Amino acid sequence: RKTLVLTMYRALPRGKMLASFTKSLLSRVDVSQHAEAKRLIERLVPTDFQEDDKVTLQLEADGESVIGSVNGRETIRVKGPGPGGIWVGFQNIFFDLNTEVLDVKRNAIEKIPALLRGRVAARADPG
């Protein structure tokens, strides 16, 4: 499972967030997934965001299930399987070649070596 947590560092109006998520996600999913993607976005952005609000996306290990939460409260579950699905599309917002959020991509990638070192160290420790 992969978990993405977006923390708002300032207040953001719902309309701006809806437009941003819609543009970013719909351009990365197959047309057959658009209705479900729009439903996901509507439920992830229920109101204006305030500073320190958190949006959490759990991308389940089955490669198709996505669970969305706002401030710890689950707001939606969807299935978006396959290469043109929501599961891959949402990750691609942050990690594909055309991402508009390069700082998020760089920050996540920079942490990978340390995460891997920690897993290797944990496996090597017999205690």
Features:
20% strand, alpha+beta, 4 helices, 127 residues
What does this 3D model show about the protein?
It is a single chain. The chain is α+β, with helices and mostly antiparallel strands and 127 residues long. Helix content is 45%, strand content 20%. It has 4 helices and 4 strands. A 4-stranded antiparallel sheet has the order 1-2-3-4, covered by helices on one side. A hairpin with a 5-residue loop joins β2 and β3. α1 runs antiparallel to α2. It is globular. The two termini are 26 Å apart. 18% of the residues are buried. The model has no long low-confidence stretch (mean pLDDT 80).
Number of helices, counting only DSSP H or I runs of 4 residues or more:
4
Side by side, the strands of the main sheet go 1-2-3-4
Strand coverage percent: 15-25%
What's the oligomerization state? single chain
Average pLDDT reading: 80
Q: Please bin the fraction of helical residues.
A: 40-55%
- Give the H and E element order: EHHEEEHH
Structural class computed from helices and strand pairing: alpha+beta
Report how far apart the termini are. 26 Å
Task: Say how many strands there are.
Answer: 4
Most strands sheet: 4 strands, antiparallel
Radius of gyration: 16 Å
Low-confidence stretches: none
Shape: globular
Which helices and strands, and how do they pair?
Blueprint: E1 2-7, H1 14-26, H2 34-44, E2 54-59, E3 65-70, E4 73-79, H3 86-95, H4 102-124
Antiparallel strand pairs: 1-2, 2-3, 3-4
Helix pairs in contact: 1-2
